[in-house]
Amino acid sequence: MVAESVAHFKDALIVLGTAGVAIPLLKRVGISNILGFMLVGVLLGPNILGKLVAYVPALSNLSIVDPTAIATLAELGVVFLLFLIGLELSPERLLTMKRLVFGLGGLQVLSSLIAITLAALFLGFEQRAALVIGMALSLSSTAIVVQLFASEKRLGTQAGRTSFAILLFQDLAIIPMLMLVGIISQPTTGNLAGSIVLAVAQAAAAVAAIVIVGRFALRPILKLVSASDSPELFMAAVLFIAIGTGALATAAGLSMSLGAFIAGLMLAETEYRRAIEAIIEPFKGLLLGMFFLIVGIALDLQGIVANPLPIIGTAIILIAAKALILFLLARAFRVSRHAAVETASLLGPCGEFAFVIIGAAVAAGMGAQADMAPVLLVVSLTMFALPLLARATRPLVNTMRKQVLATTTLPQPALAHGDEPDVIIAGFGRVGSLIASMLDEHNLSYLAIDQDVQSVSRGRKDGQSIFYGNASDPAFLHKCGLATAKALAVTMDNPAMAEEIVRMARRENPAIKIIARARDERHAMRLYIGGVTEAVPETIESSLQLGEAILVEAGIPMGLAIASVHERRDSFRKMLGRPNRREAASAARRKLRNRLPKGK
Asked: How far, in whole angstroms, is CA 7 from its chain's centroid?
């Protein structure tokens, strides 16, 4: 009886042992978490240890022959990943990406689908099967690519934003694709084009329904649970929302991960965002590990050994063809050359939804499982190669980036005596450029710093004093006039980078005034601890501006409204206690605890 009970937990013990022991050991020799889980999956799967069980029965305790037992939990890893990404975005920020999502993403899927379908027809597949293969292989791996960028904190780079936009459209396209599989699997007397349009419309309606339900239901649910002051109930509610919206999306014909992403978007601007992130993050990491473990287990080494040249050759040609299409499209959308290369190399391999589409087609009677087995083998091989491809491409991308810097000949700061700027602006996006224009109006000199080559080039063409460089580098910042500047404005939207710049600047020049953009109150607290003179939380400032507008529209005189806003702003600053940063930290923590469920 005891042995049978242990057998039920065997797969869970293997996963936990992999995450707690094997992955840290592999990481010490330079193997990433993603590749580590895949390698362990190959080792523990039916192709290596599974084969040895016949000779050494005791090895059955270490082998995962049937991964379906953990497949559902592995899918939740992808769900939580997309849920967290939604939390980091907001509907407004997502709208700014619409050109990349629907323009570049749509063209990528359509171009790859057509090219792969034609290739499948050339190889002798029947028309409907060729179309299914084209749809399946045109997609990329959301789970692996997004996790690669997220683990390196590079989702905010041009390559990260471009890749995510394309992957988001692919997730949206899965629904019409699955509907199309159902349409072409049976004779229809209607118009095929009309059926496709109907499928797309149904998908759009399903997304809209989830958004509407989420906007009106999610915040009240969390507010109700928070009032109970129970961390356990709050955790249960968060998991219910993440998994429940995914299940609702699945019932509507969408992918589960897309539903979770939409739920994350709906919660991105709520007061519960940070507490939710803290709850979901551990679940996401472990369950994603299961997903990558399954990818390794699914790699059929015996099939590759039986037909090595056709399988490996097809995988290489497929990746190269998709990457070429992606590179050309990305360049047409004015993505920089090095970012286009990185995006193309990461989205060239296939994705996890290929198994879903091909499985649905086989279940509907379009092609035998044996005919599709080589296609699925190619999919598995390309997914396994993705982390290796990312590592191999990185030196090329870095070299191309350096070449761009060399050919653009961006000037470096060389300040003569008397030319030192009044203000240094670290980060020249929308916030930084607005500050620069205000300084110009008052005849105050400034020097701006940014690491985006295109932003620097555009700014210099417009006559602005902007230089390419790393604002967290003390030597570079001293060249920009750190020792004599009256103030340093830190405007980038990368919280970790902003904190690093503040700490370094305060250490190098204890007297300089440092004003920094903060994401929220918690980020402002960390900036004050690091030495910032003034932290301006976006959430607080937008609320104050909204409050001022409401007061004026309600009939309060402008002077009184402005005075009220200043009073609230001063109250917030006193709460943080700028003169005593230790007290600032304590005050901010107390306020944060009062806003969140106890125990968060």
From this structure: 37
Three-state SS at 537: strand
Highest mean pLDDT: which of 4-8, 148-152, 488-492, 537-541? 488-492
CA nearest 277: which of 24, 490, 493, 523? Answer: 523
% helix / strand / coil in the chain, to the nearest 5? 70, 5, 25
Q: Which of 337, 372, 403 is where one domain is finished? A: 403
Closest Cα to residue 158, out of 340, 404, 399? 340
Domain that holds residue 277: 67-186+193-403
Taking CA atoms, 311 is separated from 167, 348, 382, in Å, by 25, 16, 10
Torsion of CA 244, 16, 359, 296, to 10 degrees: 140
User: Which are the contacts of 98, defined by CB distance < 8 A and separation ≥ 6?
Assistant: none
Q: Which residues contact 117 (CB under 8 A, 6 or more apart)?
A: 130, 131, 133, 134
Annotate 199-226 with three-state secondary structure.
Answer: HHHHHHHHHHHHHHHHHHHHHHHHHHHH
Express each pLDDT in 229-254 by its tens digit: 787 888 888 888 888 888 888 877 67
Of the residues 403, 433, 452, which one is the last residue of a structural domain?
Answer: 403
pLDDT in the model for residue 303: 77
384 and 440 inside one domain: no
pTM above 0.90, yes or no: no
**First-residue to last-residue Cα distance in the chain:** 40
